Each structure stands twice: as C-alpha cells, then as structure tokens.
Amino acid sequence: MLYKVFCKNPDILDSPKAVPFENTLLHIAASSGSNERTDDSSCKRAEFAVEVAILKPSFARKLNPEGHTPMHLALLHREWKIVRALMRLDPELIRVKGKGGRTPLHVASEIGPPQLLAELLYVCPSSIEDVTAKWETAVHIAVGKKNSESFAVLIGWLLRVDRENILQWKDMDGNTVLHVATRTNQVEVVKRLLEYMIDDVENLKGETALAIHDKDEGPHRSEEIGRAIRAAHMKRERRICLPLSLLPPKVTPTRHIRLGKYLSGDISRLRRKERNIKHRFQRFGVGREKSREVFIVIAVLVATATYQGILSPPGGLWQEDSSSSNITTNITSNSNSHYAGQMVNGRKLPRYIKYNSLAFVVSVCLIIACMPTDILIGAYLAMTMILLLVTYGDALYSILPPHYSDVRATVTIEIVVAVVFAFAIAVVRYVMKVSSAFRLKLDTAKTGRCWELVRFDDVADGQSNVQHAGQKHTADTEGHPLQILANP
C-alpha cells in the first residue's frame, strides 16, 4: 500500500522537510489506533510505522507541534507494538526528548505497563540517566504519579545495575525521590527508599523528608512515614565506626553550598597530605592502574619464591637427629647438635635468612599498598597478608637451629615492623576511603549530576549583584568602558 502511494506521489515523504514541527506519516501511524484496537490492525500499523522509519529515519526523531515524537505518541495512544517495533529498530529513540524534556522512558514510567518499561530499560540502559526540563528522573515521575508498578521496576533495575545513586538525584526544586514520596504520603515507597537513600538530604528550601512530613497537616498524613524515617536515621547513626575527629568536615551536595565559595576555600590538611602522597607515588608510576597491577604480580612472585625458600632452604634439612648419626662434616663443625627437620648449618645461612625474610616482608607490604580501595575487601586482604607474615615466622622458627638466636631476633623484628606497617597502611587507606565519601567531588560520574553543585540562593545572588554593581571599572578597551557583570 505504501509503495502504491509512492507511485502516485513520489514526494509524499519529503513534504514536511522544511517544517521544523510537523505531523509526519510516522506520527499519524503512531496515533491512529485509538478507534480500532484489534491485533491485526495493530500489527499492520506497526509494520507500516517500521517501513516509514526505515525509508525516512529522520521522521522517528522529528517532533510534531505538540512536542511529541512518534514513540511518544505510540505510548500515549497505547500502541505497544509500535513502541516495541521502533525501539528495536533504533534503541536511541528511547532517549529523544520531547515536550518538557520528557523521553519515551519518562512517559512509560507514568502510563506504560511494567513489562514494556522493563523492555525499554533493557534495550537502552543509559536512558535511565535522562532527566526532564525540571530535572526529574523516571523515578521522580513514577513516584509523583503514584505508579507503584513502574516504581518497582525502576528501583529493581537500579539495584541490579548498581546505579542506586540515581535515587539521590534532585529535581529543579532540590527534591529527591524520597521528598516526593513523603509529600505524596506513599508509605511503602518511603520504606523501600529508606533502605538505599540518605534520609537527611535537604531540598532548596532546606527541608528534609522528615521536615516535609512534620509540616504536612493534611488529612492523608501518615504517622507511619515519620516513624520509618526516624528509625532509618537512628539506624544510620549507629553505623558510624570512626571517631568524628578523624573525619573531615562533611561537604556534600546535600548542603547549601555555592560552587564558587567551595572552590575558593582552603584544602583540608588531610586532603593535602593525600595529594602529596599520591603525587609522590605517581612519580614512580605507582598511581597508574596498570603499574599497580604489575607491582602486585611482581610482589606475589617474590613473596612466593621467598616463602618457598624458607620451606626448602639451599642446604636442605636434616633427616635425623645428631644423636643417632655418626657422620660429621665441615658443615656441622660449628654446631653441637641438630634435630631432624632443622636446616643444615652453613656459613652463609644467617645472611640468607635475613635477606630472604626482608624480601618477603617488603613484598607483602607492597601487596597491601596496591590493594583495591574497597574498604571491606581491602580489610580482609590486609588481614590475610598479616596472618601470612605470622605463619612465615612460625615456619622459619620451627626449622631454624636453636643456636641462631641473633637471626631469630632479626627476623622477629622484621615481621613485627611489617605487621605494624601493614596495619598502618590498611588504616590510612580506610580513612582516605571514608573521607572521600564525605568530600564534594566535581566529577559528575561520582556525584550524580553536575547541577547538584549549583545552588539557587536569591539572597546570596542579590548580595553578589550589589557587590559587583558597586565596583567601578574605569579601564577602557578601544574607547568603550568595561561592562559590569550583573549576574556572576
């Protein structure tokens, strides 16, 4: 049918070419199924829509006068087959923004069935990061419209792809999903969010979720929400495992902080020491990920070789006690007795043991220093390395001849120093990891969104404007006075 129309009017698809907003054939196909809703008609409309989208890919991204793409219209008119056909044709169509900056995923989170919403996320995982013109995420929209099914799908997706940090993203008013759920009195949603969110985040009005709940005096106010938020807050307070004196000041996007003021402030002493240590290591290539991997491989090989060098020393081990042996050699001339399982004495054995032990403890400390920064895994690995040092000493003492007391003392000192050093490294890395969680990062991939660093404060903006307006600039450039910045 479509190609028969082409025979009569070959330019039919080029008619809206010069018009920025127009209802194309693809828009009409996506929104023409309101009256008829049979499987056969839906399949035909889906085939027609795909055919037009293949011939004119630009139509699939074009907005009509209402600010909708064909996929937007298909969702609004519940043409699920057309939606599935278009998203399989081009998954990036899910990220095309229409009226109000809303993508098809935002529309689906409001009105779409859970299965279709899950398919959209699966086909285009990055679409979960898109926000509207009001900086609302798909979770904001689902919670705001009280669509519990869509909320369950969205939060399930975020947890499975380790992107629950998106729950902390804020809209233009500074409200997180928890603020919206509290304001709309959705008890179950609030309880679910409290498992993965911080409860004391403030919006631009300085209100936390608990403050919004306490301020609400409407008939639908639920006391269960207040109890849940208070219980979550108390539970989070009990999780603090470091003294507050060891932690840097809490500077996070949850506070009303202006980016200019933050950048103009002094760097904390802990942050300076951390930077100095990092720069010193980077001079030797330690700061690079590939370099750390190479160091770990080399350290593991050295630790394995030196540990094996104690279990199988160069001179071997005595096979029987000296009391039952009548063989005397030059090797044993300096010893009165020996026992089975002890090292065969040699002139260079003390030096060998000292250097071998030193190489072992240094390699173990290097392994600990190059461990991943994850607190839980790093602590377990550090503990296993410390236990390895202790077992090395036990293995050495069990086969070392008794008259080598000076060697035993030297190795003991090396192991004790290594254990203390390894424990210190683990503690320092723990403190640095915790401090990084309390530090404001300019990397949007870690903080969530760059606009979380921007705060709209009318009072501060007014003061800044007055301050700059009072400054008189008399410098001239080509005879024209410099313009005064009204809004820095």
Automatic annotation (TrEMBL):
Where does the sequence pass through the membrane? 294-311, 352-370, 377-399, 411-432
PROSITE patterns per record: ANK_REP_REGION (PS50297), ANK_REPEAT (PS50088)
InterPro entries from the UniProt entry? Ankyrin_rpt, Ankyrin_rpt-contain_sf, PGG_dom
Q: Which UniProt keywords apply?
A: ANK repeat, Membrane, Transmembrane, Transmembrane helix
The positions making up the signal sequence are: none
Enumerate the Gene3D superfamilies for this protein.
Ankyrin repeat-containing domain
Give the domain of life: Eukaryota
Q: Where are the ANK repeats?
A: 173-199
Q: What is this protein called?
A: PGG domain-containing protein
